[in-house]
Amino acid sequence: MVIAVGLPEAVVLNVEGEQLDGVIPGLDFLRDGAAGNVRKMTDPVVVVGGGSVAVDTTMTALRMGAQNVTMVCLESPDEIPASKSELKDALEEGVRIMHRWGIAEITGNGSVDGVVLKRCSRVFDNQGRFNPEYDETTTESIPAATVLIAIGQRADDLLRDRNGRRIHAKFIKAEAKKNRHRQRLTGHFTAQTNPFPLRVSSIDHKLHHT
To answer: Residue 155 gets which letter from DSSP?
Structure first.
């Protein structure tokens, strides 16, 4: 058996102002675009993120009529996860890319009118793990009428055990990490962005013996 539920939920910033009108998860924005639900874009547009989904979100915004688009990412030009060809296309379309900035807050009164950035001094720690650090004293404010957040995806809580109880995504991830060094399993695997092998039977056992 293979569990291939994907990562359908967008990761949020958890910053002040994220609930304002005009702040949209990048995945929702892309789903709407794929379904033909074209949004009326209001400039300036700020896309938060540095991966392929962020670039896709940026290019989709341009196709929907945006003319002033800025990508904001934590990574330096050498660290950014999007491919060089994707970034080249975005730059040729007139997209501005601001490297080494995080989001301090999103401003506005009901609707978004700007983003306050804070300098990202480090993205990865000494072990190479994603663990950003910021210089809170170095900030910059940029205008925004639309903010598209494309900083990652996560699993939802749709999986349930045989008694109908939810199997939380964090629990699945934890079990997967425990088994990542196993070479042979019992035929149960997960298919996900972070492809650690997972024994589904171990999840079921723990859920019914705790």
So the answer is: -
Q: Do 50 and 102 belong to one domain?
A: yes
Range of the domain at 109: 9-153
Task: Tell me the pTM.
Answer: 0.73
Least confident of 32-41, 86-95, 138-147, 169-178: 169-178
Q: Is residue 3 part of a domain?
A: no
Q: State the number of CA atoms in the 13 A half-sphere of 154 facing the CB.
A: 14
Distance, CA of 146 to CA of 51 (rounded, Å)? 19
Q: How many whole angstroms separate alpha carbon 73 and alpha carbon 162? A: 42
Closest-CA residue to 72 (of 108, 105, 40): 105
Separation of CA 39 from chain center: 20
